[in-house]
Design brief:
By secondary structure, the chain is α/β, with parallel strands linked by helices. The chain has a single domain, classed as Rossmann fold (3-Layer(aba) Sandwich). The protein has an eight-stranded mixed beta sheet with strand order 1-2-4-3-5-6-7-8, with helices on both faces.
Length: about 325
């Protein structure tokens, strides 16, 4: 029996009715979905005045982490940077997934967008994903001058799994003392491997955009059998005891999604630690609503609120 739960926004519900939903996520289904988990970037860049550069960052284990650097063409002064971490449950997607979101900030704010292609679970696990993201961020900080980036205005941002990894990278940068991060933008972030909140139970047991069962598969793919103190806080940021010293933070989620309660709790704990966070819970929003249907009224409002906050934050 399904628990009582908030319903979907009517416009989103009508749009979702035409979308085939995955009934389950397992190893077999993942192999079928992965090829379709990203949209080609070229149509998004067409008509934009953008300089594009592709680099790879070496890792100690011999792997190389790709970064796509997208800069406003002809900019003469140092620009803010959005370091983008894509979603996909930590098991799918690539550096072009949901990149239309930070490209709006390139258009409107003149930001340099750097998107990282971290390695995915289950092929790798533990801290590898967040370590890849952190290595890319360090490279960006070290090359800020040649990239035309203002090192005092670097924003770490991500959606879904990318939001969780963004939170982990920000904790890592705080603990290691480098690089400086001006702000973090966590969009429907995947923060807590325990998967035990009221909202996770509400969105369970039937097909959906991202269900409790899918969430469990994603976390098990990363963590294997690790539990309790074996789970690193940089991978599951909700475990972090200390949220002091974090940069100003933007968190949003839908009221009708698995991650709602863990995201609200994370914002609440930042406030309790004396930090600054802005939290939006969009009534009737399911997971990833504004990425899937950006022209819906609620999606446009969510994107506008994020951009307005980032505009104010970068100006200050």
């Amino acid at each position: 029996m399904t628990s009582p739960r908030p319903g979907f926004d009517p416009e989103l519900s009508a749009l979702l009715a035409g979308m085939p939903l995955v009934p389950r996520l397992d190893t077999e289904a993942l192999a079928q979905i992965r090829p379709f988990s990203s949209t080609p970037v070229e149509p998004l860049l067409d008509g934009r005045a953008i300089d594009r550069r592709e680099v790879t960052v070496p890792r100690p284990d011999g792997a190389r982490v790709p970064l796509s650097i997208l800069s406003p063409a002809g900019r003469a002064t140092p620009a803010p940077c959005v370091y983008w971490i894509h979603g996909g449950g930590m098991v799918m997607g690539d550096r072009y997934s949901q990149i239309d979101i930070p490209l709006e900030w390139l258009d409107l704010l003149g930001a340099v967008v750097v998107s990282v292609d971290y390695r995915l679970a289950p092929e790798v696990g533990g801290t590898t994903l967040v370590d890849d993201c952190y290595a890319g961020l360090l490279w960006v900080a070290e090359h800020a001058a040649e990239l035309g980036i203002d090192p005092a205005r670097v924003v770490v941002a991500g959606a879904s799994a990318g939001g969780g990894l963004a939170a982990g990278v920000t904790l890592m940068a705080r603990d290691r003392g480098t690089p400086p991060i001006a702000a973090q933008v966590l969009i429907g972030p995947m923060l807590d491997h325990r998967n035990v909140t009221t909202s996770s139970r509400q969105y369970s047991g039937e097909p959906g955009v991202w269900t409790r069962e899918m969430n469990d598969f994603g976390w098990r793919s990363v963590l294997g059998e690790a539990t309790g103190t074996d789970v690193p806080v940089y991978v599951s940021p909700a475990l972090a005891d200390d949220l002091t010293g974090l940069p100003t933070t933007y968190i949003d989620a839908g009221s009708a999604e698995v991650f709602r309660d863990e995201d609200v709790t994370y914002a609440t704990r930042i406030w309790a630690a004396g930090g600054q966070a802005e939290l939006h819970v969009w009534a009737g929003g399911f997971h990833g609503f504004d990425a899937l249907y950006p022209k819906a009224a609620i999606s446009a409002a969510a994107r506008r609120a994020r951009t307005d906050w980032l505009t104010r934050t970068l100006a200050s």
